[in-house]
Design brief:
The complex is a heterodimer of chains A (388) and B (135).
Chain A: E1 8-15, H1 26-41, E2 50-54, H2 61-68, E3 75-79, H3 88-98, E4 105-112, H4 130-139, H5 146-161, H6 165-180, H7 194-199, E5 202-205, E6 207-208, E7 217-226, H8 227-231, E8 238-246, H9 266-279, E9 288-290, H10 299-305, H11 314-319, H12 336-339, H13 346-357, E10 369-373, E11 380-386
Parallel strand pairs in A: 2-3, 2-4, 9-10
Antiparallel strand pairs in A: 1-7, 1-8, 4-7, 5-6, 8-11, 10-11
Helix pairs in contact in A: 1-2
Chain B: H1 3-7, H2 19-26, E1 31-35, E2 41-42, E3 57-61, E4 65-74, E5 86-93, E6 98-102, E7 116-124, E8 127-134
Antiparallel strand pairs in B: 1-2, 1-3, 4-5, 4-7, 5-6, 7-8
The chains are: A alpha/beta (388), B mainly beta (135).
Protein backbone atom coordinates (compact mmCIF):
# COMPACT_ATOMS: atom_id res chain seq x y z
CA UNK A 1 0.00 0.00 0.00
CA UNK A 2 1.16 3.51 -0.74
CA UNK A 3 1.51 6.41 1.63
CA UNK A 4 -1.45 7.92 -0.20
CA UNK A 5 -4.00 5.17 0.45
CA UNK A 6 -6.86 5.92 2.88
CA UNK A 7 -5.25 9.14 4.13
CA UNK A 8 -8.17 11.23 2.84
CA UNK A 9 -11.92 10.83 2.68
CA UNK A 10 -15.01 12.18 0.99
CA UNK A 11 -16.77 13.94 3.87
CA UNK A 12 -19.75 15.28 1.98
CA UNK A 13 -21.52 15.30 -1.35
CA UNK A 14 -24.19 17.41 -2.94
CA UNK A 15 -26.14 17.43 -6.18
CA UNK A 16 -28.81 19.36 -7.99
CA UNK A 17 -31.72 17.66 -9.68
CA UNK A 18 -30.93 16.13 -13.08
CA UNK A 19 -32.97 17.38 -16.03
CA UNK A 20 -33.01 18.36 -19.69
CA UNK A 21 -33.35 22.05 -18.85
CA UNK A 22 -32.18 23.28 -15.47
CA UNK A 23 -33.57 26.78 -15.99
CA UNK A 24 -30.53 28.40 -14.36
CA UNK A 25 -26.88 29.11 -15.07
CA UNK A 26 -24.17 26.47 -14.92
CA UNK A 27 -22.42 28.54 -12.25
CA UNK A 28 -25.52 28.49 -10.12
CA UNK A 29 -25.70 24.70 -10.52
CA UNK A 30 -22.06 24.41 -9.45
CA UNK A 31 -22.61 26.65 -6.43
CA UNK A 32 -25.75 24.80 -5.36
CA UNK A 33 -23.94 21.45 -5.50
CA UNK A 34 -20.87 22.77 -3.65
CA UNK A 35 -22.96 24.38 -0.91
CA UNK A 36 -24.99 21.19 -0.56
CA UNK A 37 -21.81 19.14 -0.27
CA UNK A 38 -20.40 21.48 2.40
CA UNK A 39 -23.67 21.38 4.34
CA UNK A 40 -23.71 17.59 4.09
CA UNK A 41 -20.17 17.48 5.51
CA UNK A 42 -20.81 20.14 8.15
CA UNK A 43 -17.93 22.27 6.89
CA UNK A 44 -18.18 26.06 6.53
CA UNK A 45 -17.61 27.58 3.09
CA UNK A 46 -14.87 29.75 4.55
CA UNK A 47 -12.77 26.64 5.19
CA UNK A 48 -12.53 25.63 1.53
CA UNK A 49 -8.96 26.14 0.37
CA UNK A 50 -8.78 23.82 -2.63
CA UNK A 51 -10.80 23.20 -5.80
CA UNK A 52 -10.32 20.61 -8.51
CA UNK A 53 -12.53 20.04 -11.53
CA UNK A 54 -12.50 19.13 -15.24
CA UNK A 55 -10.99 21.34 -17.93
CA UNK A 56 -14.36 20.99 -19.69
CA UNK A 57 -16.24 22.55 -16.79
CA UNK A 58 -17.26 26.08 -17.77
CA UNK A 59 -17.29 27.47 -14.24
CA UNK A 60 -14.15 29.25 -13.15
CA UNK A 61 -12.92 28.10 -9.78
CA UNK A 62 -12.49 31.74 -8.74
CA UNK A 63 -16.15 32.41 -9.62
CA UNK A 64 -17.37 29.43 -7.62
CA UNK A 65 -15.10 30.55 -4.79
CA UNK A 66 -16.48 34.09 -4.95
CA UNK A 67 -20.04 32.87 -4.91
CA UNK A 68 -19.64 30.64 -1.87
CA UNK A 69 -17.79 33.36 0.04
CA UNK A 70 -14.42 31.64 0.06
CA UNK A 71 -11.50 33.32 1.83
CA UNK A 72 -8.16 31.95 0.74
CA UNK A 73 -7.89 29.51 -2.17
CA UNK A 74 -4.50 27.80 -2.11
CA UNK A 75 -4.89 24.91 -4.54
CA UNK A 76 -6.82 24.76 -7.81
CA UNK A 77 -6.33 22.29 -10.62
CA UNK A 78 -8.16 20.91 -13.63
CA UNK A 79 -7.99 17.61 -15.45
CA UNK A 80 -8.50 17.25 -19.21
CA UNK A 81 -9.94 14.36 -21.26
CA UNK A 82 -13.65 15.05 -20.81
CA UNK A 83 -15.28 12.20 -18.93
CA UNK A 84 -11.88 10.55 -18.58
CA UNK A 85 -11.28 13.05 -15.79
CA UNK A 86 -13.97 11.86 -13.36
CA UNK A 87 -11.83 10.31 -10.64
CA UNK A 88 -8.70 12.37 -11.24
CA UNK A 89 -9.88 15.45 -9.28
CA UNK A 90 -10.32 13.08 -6.32
CA UNK A 91 -6.69 12.08 -6.80
CA UNK A 92 -5.72 15.76 -7.02
CA UNK A 93 -7.58 16.47 -3.79
CA UNK A 94 -6.06 13.49 -1.99
CA UNK A 95 -2.56 14.44 -3.11
CA UNK A 96 -2.98 18.11 -2.17
CA UNK A 97 -4.23 17.20 1.29
CA UNK A 98 -1.70 14.43 1.88
CA UNK A 99 1.11 16.81 0.89
CA UNK A 100 -0.14 19.53 3.20
CA UNK A 101 -0.97 21.95 0.39
CA UNK A 102 -4.67 22.24 1.24
CA UNK A 103 -7.08 21.05 3.91
CA UNK A 104 -10.59 21.20 2.42
CA UNK A 105 -10.80 20.49 -1.32
CA UNK A 106 -14.04 20.77 -3.23
CA UNK A 107 -14.54 18.82 -6.48
CA UNK A 108 -17.41 19.80 -8.76
CA UNK A 109 -18.84 19.22 -12.23
CA UNK A 110 -21.75 21.37 -13.36
CA UNK A 111 -23.26 21.58 -16.80
CA UNK A 112 -26.24 22.53 -18.90
CA UNK A 113 -25.11 19.87 -21.36
CA UNK A 114 -28.60 19.40 -22.79
CA UNK A 115 -30.18 22.84 -22.71
CA UNK A 116 -27.17 24.98 -23.71
CA UNK A 117 -24.98 22.66 -25.83
CA UNK A 118 -24.77 18.97 -26.66
CA UNK A 119 -21.73 16.69 -26.62
CA UNK A 120 -23.42 14.22 -28.98
CA UNK A 121 -23.16 16.66 -31.87
CA UNK A 122 -20.40 16.59 -34.49
CA UNK A 123 -17.17 18.08 -33.14
CA UNK A 124 -16.19 21.13 -35.15
CA UNK A 125 -12.48 21.45 -34.71
CA UNK A 126 -11.07 24.98 -34.55
CA UNK A 127 -8.53 26.43 -33.79
CA UNK A 128 -5.74 24.02 -34.82
CA UNK A 129 -4.66 22.81 -31.39
CA UNK A 130 -2.86 19.47 -31.11
CA UNK A 131 -6.13 17.78 -30.16
CA UNK A 132 -8.24 19.50 -32.82
CA UNK A 133 -5.98 18.63 -35.75
CA UNK A 134 -6.41 14.96 -34.82
CA UNK A 135 -10.21 15.32 -34.59
CA UNK A 136 -10.20 17.10 -37.96
CA UNK A 137 -7.97 14.44 -39.57
CA UNK A 138 -10.51 11.79 -38.53
CA UNK A 139 -13.48 14.08 -39.08
CA UNK A 140 -12.74 14.42 -42.79
CA UNK A 141 -13.68 10.74 -43.04
CA UNK A 142 -17.11 11.35 -41.55
CA UNK A 143 -16.09 10.23 -38.07
CA UNK A 144 -17.16 13.24 -36.05
CA UNK A 145 -19.24 12.13 -33.08
CA UNK A 146 -18.32 10.37 -29.84
CA UNK A 147 -20.81 7.62 -30.73
CA UNK A 148 -19.13 6.91 -34.08
CA UNK A 149 -15.68 6.87 -32.48
CA UNK A 150 -16.87 4.42 -29.83
CA UNK A 151 -18.72 2.45 -32.50
CA UNK A 152 -15.42 1.96 -34.33
CA UNK A 153 -13.82 0.62 -31.15
CA UNK A 154 -16.71 -1.62 -30.18
CA UNK A 155 -17.09 -3.17 -33.65
CA UNK A 156 -13.57 -4.53 -33.32
CA UNK A 157 -14.27 -5.66 -29.74
CA UNK A 158 -17.25 -7.63 -31.07
CA UNK A 159 -15.01 -9.25 -33.68
CA UNK A 160 -12.41 -10.25 -31.09
CA UNK A 161 -14.74 -11.32 -28.25
CA UNK A 162 -17.75 -12.68 -30.12
CA UNK A 163 -20.00 -10.26 -28.21
CA UNK A 164 -23.12 -9.07 -30.05
CA UNK A 165 -25.45 -6.10 -29.87
CA UNK A 166 -27.89 -8.47 -28.15
CA UNK A 167 -25.27 -9.02 -25.44
CA UNK A 168 -24.86 -5.24 -25.09
CA UNK A 169 -28.63 -4.95 -24.63
CA UNK A 170 -28.32 -6.73 -21.28
CA UNK A 171 -26.37 -3.81 -19.86
CA UNK A 172 -28.87 -1.23 -21.13
CA UNK A 173 -31.72 -3.21 -19.58
CA UNK A 174 -29.85 -3.41 -16.25
CA UNK A 175 -29.10 0.33 -16.18
CA UNK A 176 -32.70 1.22 -16.93
CA UNK A 177 -33.94 -1.32 -14.37
CA UNK A 178 -31.89 0.42 -11.68
CA UNK A 179 -32.98 3.87 -12.90
CA UNK A 180 -36.60 2.77 -12.81
CA UNK A 181 -36.49 2.61 -8.99
CA UNK A 182 -34.33 5.75 -8.50
CA UNK A 183 -36.51 8.87 -8.15
CA UNK A 184 -33.53 11.10 -9.09
CA UNK A 185 -33.13 9.31 -12.43
CA UNK A 186 -34.45 10.85 -15.61
CA UNK A 187 -35.76 7.41 -16.56
CA UNK A 188 -37.42 6.78 -13.18
CA UNK A 189 -40.28 4.36 -13.68
CA UNK A 190 -39.24 3.64 -17.27
CA UNK A 191 -37.56 0.25 -17.60
CA UNK A 192 -36.82 -1.23 -21.03
CA UNK A 193 -36.61 -4.71 -22.52
CA UNK A 194 -34.00 -6.41 -24.69
CA UNK A 195 -36.45 -5.97 -27.56
CA UNK A 196 -36.73 -2.22 -26.91
CA UNK A 197 -32.94 -1.97 -27.12
CA UNK A 198 -32.72 -3.99 -30.31
CA UNK A 199 -35.53 -2.00 -31.93
CA UNK A 200 -34.07 1.40 -31.01
CA UNK A 201 -32.66 3.32 -33.95
CA UNK A 202 -29.08 2.98 -34.97
CA UNK A 203 -26.85 5.94 -34.06
CA UNK A 204 -23.44 4.64 -35.14
CA UNK A 205 -23.51 0.93 -35.93
CA UNK A 206 -23.00 -1.12 -33.77
CA UNK A 207 -24.35 1.44 -31.26
CA UNK A 208 -28.11 1.79 -30.93
CA UNK A 209 -29.80 4.80 -29.35
CA UNK A 210 -30.31 2.81 -26.13
CA UNK A 211 -26.55 2.15 -25.90
CA UNK A 212 -25.93 5.89 -25.61
CA UNK A 213 -25.88 7.92 -22.42
CA UNK A 214 -28.23 10.81 -21.92
CA UNK A 215 -27.43 14.46 -22.38
CA UNK A 216 -28.22 16.18 -19.10
CA UNK A 217 -28.28 19.38 -17.09
CA UNK A 218 -27.13 19.14 -13.49
CA UNK A 219 -24.26 19.32 -11.03
CA UNK A 220 -22.54 17.16 -8.43
CA UNK A 221 -19.89 18.13 -5.88
CA UNK A 222 -17.93 16.35 -3.18
CA UNK A 223 -15.75 17.61 -0.34
CA UNK A 224 -12.46 15.88 0.45
CA UNK A 225 -10.60 16.27 3.75
CA UNK A 226 -7.98 14.31 5.71
CA UNK A 227 -9.09 11.00 7.17
CA UNK A 228 -8.55 12.37 10.68
CA UNK A 229 -10.77 15.37 10.03
CA UNK A 230 -13.40 13.20 8.35
CA UNK A 231 -13.72 11.02 11.43
CA UNK A 232 -14.74 14.07 13.48
CA UNK A 233 -17.46 15.16 11.03
CA UNK A 234 -21.11 14.20 10.90
CA UNK A 235 -21.01 11.69 8.02
CA UNK A 236 -19.42 8.28 7.85
CA UNK A 237 -16.05 8.86 6.11
CA UNK A 238 -15.78 7.42 2.61
CA UNK A 239 -12.04 6.82 2.34
CA UNK A 240 -10.12 7.26 -0.89
CA UNK A 241 -8.35 3.89 -0.82
CA UNK A 242 -6.78 4.51 -4.23
CA UNK A 243 -7.03 6.92 -7.15
CA UNK A 244 -5.16 6.65 -10.44
CA UNK A 245 -4.95 7.93 -13.99
CA UNK A 246 -4.27 5.64 -16.94
CA UNK A 247 -2.97 6.53 -20.38
CA UNK A 248 -0.65 3.86 -21.77
CA UNK A 249 0.94 4.04 -25.22
CA UNK A 250 -1.52 4.57 -28.04
CA UNK A 251 -4.29 6.08 -25.88
CA UNK A 252 -5.83 9.14 -27.55
CA UNK A 253 -9.02 11.14 -27.07
CA UNK A 254 -11.64 8.74 -28.47
CA UNK A 255 -9.16 8.23 -31.32
CA UNK A 256 -6.81 5.49 -30.11
CA UNK A 257 -7.12 3.63 -33.40
CA UNK A 258 -3.43 2.95 -33.90
CA UNK A 259 -2.69 0.53 -31.07
CA UNK A 260 -3.03 -3.26 -31.24
CA UNK A 261 -6.23 -3.40 -29.19
CA UNK A 262 -8.48 -0.47 -30.08
CA UNK A 263 -11.20 -1.49 -27.58
CA UNK A 264 -11.52 0.81 -24.55
CA UNK A 265 -9.38 -1.58 -22.50
CA UNK A 266 -5.68 -0.68 -22.19
CA UNK A 267 -6.20 2.60 -20.32
CA UNK A 268 -8.61 0.91 -17.89
CA UNK A 269 -6.20 -1.95 -17.24
CA UNK A 270 -3.43 0.57 -16.62
CA UNK A 271 -5.53 2.49 -14.09
CA UNK A 272 -6.73 -0.73 -12.47
CA UNK A 273 -3.23 -2.10 -11.90
CA UNK A 274 -2.28 1.09 -10.04
CA UNK A 275 -5.46 1.08 -7.96
CA UNK A 276 -5.09 -2.45 -6.71
CA UNK A 277 -1.42 -1.88 -5.90
CA UNK A 278 -2.15 1.40 -4.07
CA UNK A 279 -4.91 -0.08 -1.97
CA UNK A 280 -3.45 -3.55 -1.45
CA UNK A 281 -6.69 -4.99 -2.82
CA UNK A 282 -7.73 -7.39 -5.58
CA UNK A 283 -10.74 -7.38 -7.90
CA UNK A 284 -12.34 -10.00 -5.61
CA UNK A 285 -12.30 -7.43 -2.80
CA UNK A 286 -14.58 -5.05 -4.71
CA UNK A 287 -18.17 -5.37 -3.43
CA UNK A 288 -19.87 -3.21 -6.07
CA UNK A 289 -18.83 -0.89 -8.89
CA UNK A 290 -19.69 2.22 -10.83
CA UNK A 291 -18.37 1.77 -14.37
CA UNK A 292 -18.56 4.80 -16.63
CA UNK A 293 -21.19 4.28 -19.31
CA UNK A 294 -20.92 7.05 -21.88
CA UNK A 295 -21.85 4.13 -24.08
CA UNK A 296 -23.18 0.97 -22.44
CA UNK A 297 -21.08 -1.44 -24.51
CA UNK A 298 -17.87 0.11 -23.10
CA UNK A 299 -18.78 -1.54 -19.80
CA UNK A 300 -17.91 -4.93 -21.33
CA UNK A 301 -14.19 -4.39 -21.98
CA UNK A 302 -14.17 -2.37 -18.73
CA UNK A 303 -15.24 -5.39 -16.67
CA UNK A 304 -12.40 -7.34 -18.27
CA UNK A 305 -9.79 -4.61 -17.88
CA UNK A 306 -10.52 -4.08 -14.18
CA UNK A 307 -10.13 -7.79 -13.59
CA UNK A 308 -13.67 -9.00 -12.89
CA UNK A 309 -13.61 -11.55 -15.70
CA UNK A 310 -11.22 -12.77 -18.35
CA UNK A 311 -10.69 -10.97 -21.63
CA UNK A 312 -13.60 -11.70 -23.95
CA UNK A 313 -15.73 -13.16 -21.15
CA UNK A 314 -17.78 -10.08 -20.20
CA UNK A 315 -20.69 -11.13 -22.38
CA UNK A 316 -21.22 -14.26 -20.25
CA UNK A 317 -20.41 -12.41 -17.01
CA UNK A 318 -23.12 -9.83 -17.73
CA UNK A 319 -25.74 -12.33 -18.93
CA UNK A 320 -25.20 -14.55 -15.90
CA UNK A 321 -26.64 -11.88 -13.62
CA UNK A 322 -23.40 -10.92 -11.87
CA UNK A 323 -24.24 -7.20 -12.14
CA UNK A 324 -27.59 -7.43 -10.40
CA UNK A 325 -28.02 -6.29 -6.80
CA UNK A 326 -27.32 -9.56 -5.01
CA UNK A 327 -24.94 -10.67 -7.76
CA UNK A 328 -21.15 -10.96 -7.62
CA UNK A 329 -20.55 -7.31 -8.68
CA UNK A 330 -23.62 -5.07 -8.43
CA UNK A 331 -23.11 -2.34 -11.02
CA UNK A 332 -24.39 1.20 -11.51
CA UNK A 333 -27.18 0.95 -8.98
CA UNK A 334 -28.22 4.57 -9.68
CA UNK A 335 -28.99 3.62 -13.26
CA UNK A 336 -25.72 4.79 -14.73
CA UNK A 337 -25.46 7.58 -17.26
CA UNK A 338 -27.86 5.71 -19.51
CA UNK A 339 -30.54 5.76 -16.83
CA UNK A 340 -29.93 8.43 -14.18
CA UNK A 341 -28.12 11.31 -15.88
CA UNK A 342 -24.91 12.23 -17.65
CA UNK A 343 -22.86 14.45 -15.35
CA UNK A 344 -19.49 13.34 -16.70
CA UNK A 345 -19.38 10.51 -14.18
CA UNK A 346 -19.65 12.67 -11.06
CA UNK A 347 -23.15 11.33 -10.37
CA UNK A 348 -21.49 7.90 -10.19
CA UNK A 349 -19.08 9.17 -7.54
CA UNK A 350 -22.11 10.45 -5.59
CA UNK A 351 -23.79 7.06 -5.89
CA UNK A 352 -20.69 5.33 -4.54
CA UNK A 353 -20.77 7.68 -1.52
CA UNK A 354 -24.43 6.86 -0.88
CA UNK A 355 -23.85 3.12 -1.26
CA UNK A 356 -20.90 3.16 1.15
CA UNK A 357 -22.88 5.20 3.68
CA UNK A 358 -25.77 2.77 3.28
CA UNK A 359 -28.22 5.43 2.13
CA UNK A 360 -28.77 4.58 -1.57
CA UNK A 361 -32.24 3.94 -2.95
CA UNK A 362 -31.04 0.73 -4.61
CA UNK A 363 -28.81 -0.22 -1.71
CA UNK A 364 -26.39 -3.13 -1.92
CA UNK A 365 -26.40 -4.75 1.54
CA UNK A 366 -23.08 -4.61 3.41
CA UNK A 367 -21.05 -2.85 0.71
CA UNK A 368 -17.66 -1.68 2.06
CA UNK A 369 -15.39 -1.34 -0.97
CA UNK A 370 -16.28 0.07 -4.38
CA UNK A 371 -14.57 0.76 -7.68
CA UNK A 372 -15.55 3.95 -9.53
CA UNK A 373 -14.27 4.60 -13.04
CA UNK A 374 -14.10 7.45 -15.53
CA UNK A 375 -14.73 7.54 -19.26
CA UNK A 376 -12.82 4.96 -21.30
CA UNK A 377 -11.50 5.16 -24.82
CA UNK A 378 -9.73 8.31 -23.62
CA UNK A 379 -6.94 8.89 -21.09
CA UNK A 380 -8.86 7.76 -18.02
CA UNK A 381 -8.96 7.65 -14.23
CA UNK A 382 -10.50 5.51 -11.52
CA UNK A 383 -10.73 5.22 -7.75
CA UNK A 384 -11.38 2.70 -5.04
CA UNK A 385 -13.54 4.11 -2.24
CA UNK A 386 -14.27 2.36 1.01
CA UNK A 387 -15.67 2.50 4.54
CA UNK A 388 -14.44 0.78 7.71
CA UNK B 1 -4.06 34.91 -50.35
CA UNK B 2 -6.27 31.86 -50.14
CA UNK B 3 -5.58 28.94 -47.84
CA UNK B 4 -4.55 26.87 -50.85
CA UNK B 5 -1.91 29.42 -51.82
CA UNK B 6 -0.44 29.65 -48.34
CA UNK B 7 -0.71 26.04 -47.15
CA UNK B 8 -1.28 24.14 -50.38
CA UNK B 9 -4.68 22.82 -49.32
CA UNK B 10 -8.13 23.85 -48.08
CA UNK B 11 -8.59 21.51 -45.11
CA UNK B 12 -10.36 23.58 -42.46
CA UNK B 13 -8.31 22.60 -39.41
CA UNK B 14 -4.67 21.72 -39.88
CA UNK B 15 -1.25 22.79 -38.66
CA UNK B 16 2.29 22.44 -39.93
CA UNK B 17 2.46 18.82 -38.72
CA UNK B 18 -0.60 17.83 -40.78
CA UNK B 19 -0.35 20.09 -43.86
CA UNK B 20 1.68 17.55 -45.89
CA UNK B 21 -1.17 15.01 -45.70
CA UNK B 22 -3.74 17.43 -47.13
CA UNK B 23 -1.29 18.72 -49.75
CA UNK B 24 -0.81 15.07 -50.79
CA UNK B 25 -4.54 14.69 -51.35
CA UNK B 26 -4.48 17.81 -53.57
CA UNK B 27 -2.04 15.97 -55.83
CA UNK B 28 -3.82 12.61 -55.64
CA UNK B 29 -1.36 11.03 -53.26
CA UNK B 30 -2.08 9.28 -49.95
CA UNK B 31 0.85 10.16 -47.71
CA UNK B 32 2.34 8.84 -44.51
CA UNK B 33 5.54 9.90 -42.75
CA UNK B 34 8.73 7.83 -42.79
CA UNK B 35 11.34 8.46 -40.11
CA UNK B 36 14.59 9.58 -41.73
CA UNK B 37 16.65 7.86 -39.05
CA UNK B 38 14.96 4.48 -38.41
CA UNK B 39 12.54 4.31 -41.38
CA UNK B 40 9.51 3.61 -39.16
CA UNK B 41 6.28 4.62 -40.90
CA UNK B 42 3.53 6.56 -39.15
CA UNK B 43 0.09 7.48 -40.50
CA UNK B 44 -1.45 9.76 -37.85
CA UNK B 45 0.91 12.73 -38.29
CA UNK B 46 3.37 13.55 -35.54
CA UNK B 47 6.39 15.85 -35.33
CA UNK B 48 8.59 13.06 -33.93
CA UNK B 49 9.20 9.34 -34.38
CA UNK B 50 7.81 7.42 -31.41
CA UNK B 51 10.42 4.69 -31.99
CA UNK B 52 13.65 6.71 -32.12
CA UNK B 53 12.53 10.28 -31.28
CA UNK B 54 13.97 11.72 -34.47
CA UNK B 55 12.39 14.95 -35.68
CA UNK B 56 13.50 14.27 -39.25
CA UNK B 57 11.05 12.62 -41.61
CA UNK B 58 10.10 12.38 -45.24
CA UNK B 59 6.85 11.90 -47.10
CA UNK B 60 6.03 8.31 -47.99
CA UNK B 61 3.34 7.54 -50.56
CA UNK B 62 0.98 4.70 -49.65
CA UNK B 63 -0.38 2.34 -52.30
CA UNK B 64 -3.94 2.89 -51.07
CA UNK B 65 -4.47 -0.85 -50.60
CA UNK B 66 -5.33 -2.58 -47.36
CA UNK B 67 -7.80 -4.61 -45.32
CA UNK B 68 -10.58 -3.39 -43.03
CA UNK B 69 -9.59 -3.75 -39.35
CA UNK B 70 -12.79 -2.19 -37.98
CA UNK B 71 -15.64 0.02 -39.13
CA UNK B 72 -18.70 1.93 -38.05
CA UNK B 73 -21.79 2.94 -39.98
CA UNK B 74 -22.64 6.54 -39.11
CA UNK B 75 -26.42 7.09 -38.98
CA UNK B 76 -27.13 10.09 -36.77
CA UNK B 77 -26.82 13.03 -36.81
CA UNK B 78 -26.28 13.83 -40.52
CA UNK B 79 -22.86 15.29 -41.27
CA UNK B 80 -22.06 17.91 -43.91
CA UNK B 81 -20.81 16.28 -47.11
CA UNK B 82 -22.05 12.78 -46.30
CA UNK B 83 -25.37 11.03 -47.04
CA UNK B 84 -26.43 8.86 -44.09
CA UNK B 85 -25.95 6.06 -43.39
CA UNK B 86 -22.29 6.02 -44.43
CA UNK B 87 -19.46 3.64 -43.52
CA UNK B 88 -16.18 4.78 -41.99
CA UNK B 89 -13.40 2.21 -42.03
CA UNK B 90 -10.13 1.67 -40.19
CA UNK B 91 -7.78 0.02 -42.65
CA UNK B 92 -4.54 -1.90 -42.12
CA UNK B 93 -2.60 -0.72 -45.16
CA UNK B 94 -0.32 -3.21 -46.89
CA UNK B 95 2.65 -1.02 -45.92
CA UNK B 96 1.94 -1.78 -42.25
CA UNK B 97 0.30 1.44 -41.03
CA UNK B 98 -3.35 1.88 -40.10
CA UNK B 99 -5.40 4.57 -41.81
CA UNK B 100 -8.89 5.85 -41.07
CA UNK B 101 -10.96 6.68 -44.13
CA UNK B 102 -14.50 7.17 -45.39
CA UNK B 103 -16.23 4.45 -47.38
CA UNK B 104 -19.34 6.35 -48.44
CA UNK B 105 -20.51 5.24 -51.82
CA UNK B 106 -20.35 1.61 -50.71
CA UNK B 107 -23.60 0.12 -49.32
CA UNK B 108 -23.19 -0.32 -45.55
CA UNK B 109 -24.16 -4.00 -45.65
CA UNK B 110 -21.24 -4.74 -47.96
CA UNK B 111 -18.66 -3.54 -45.42
CA UNK B 112 -16.98 -6.23 -43.32
CA UNK B 113 -13.87 -6.69 -41.21
CA UNK B 114 -11.13 -8.33 -43.28
CA UNK B 115 -12.35 -7.12 -46.69
CA UNK B 116 -9.79 -5.76 -49.14
CA UNK B 117 -10.16 -2.09 -50.02
CA UNK B 118 -8.43 0.51 -52.16
CA UNK B 119 -8.37 4.31 -51.92
CA UNK B 120 -9.81 6.63 -54.57
CA UNK B 121 -9.42 10.40 -54.69
CA UNK B 122 -12.32 12.82 -54.69
CA UNK B 123 -13.29 16.30 -53.49
CA UNK B 124 -15.74 17.34 -50.81
CA UNK B 125 -16.68 20.89 -51.62
CA UNK B 126 -13.37 22.69 -52.17
CA UNK B 127 -11.39 20.23 -50.05
CA UNK B 128 -9.35 17.42 -51.64
CA UNK B 129 -10.33 14.08 -50.13
CA UNK B 130 -10.09 10.31 -50.53
CA UNK B 131 -12.32 7.38 -49.84
CA UNK B 132 -12.09 3.62 -49.82
CA UNK B 133 -13.97 1.20 -52.06
CA UNK B 134 -14.01 -2.54 -52.36
CA UNK B 135 -10.78 -3.74 -54.03
Amino acid sequence: MTHFSSKTAIAGYGATEFSKNSGRSELRLAVEAVLAALADAGIAAGEVDGISTYTMDNNGEQEVFRAIGGRNLKFFSRIAQGGGATCAPLQQAAMAITCGIADVVVVYRAMNERSEYRFGQPMHALPPTSDNVVFAYHGMSGLMTPAAMMGMMMRRYMQDSGATSHDFAHYAVLARKHAATNPQAFFYGKPITIEDHQASRMIADPLHLLDCCQESDGAVAVVVVSAERARDLRQKPVYIRAAAQGSPAGTLGLSGFYRDNIAPYDECAAAGRQLYAQAGLMPKDIDAAILYDHFGPSVFPGLEAYGFCEKGEAKAFVKDGNLEIGGRLPLNMHGGQLGEAYIHGMNGVAEAVRQLRGTAVNQVPGVRTMLVTAGSGVPTSAAILGVD
Amino acid sequence: MTATETRGHNAPCSNRDFDFFYRGLESGRLLAQRCSRCATLRSLPSPACGQCQSLEWEEFELSGEGRVFSYTIHHHPPLPGFAVPHPVVLVDMIEGVRLLGPMDGTPPDEVAIGMSVRADFTRRGDVAAFRFRKA
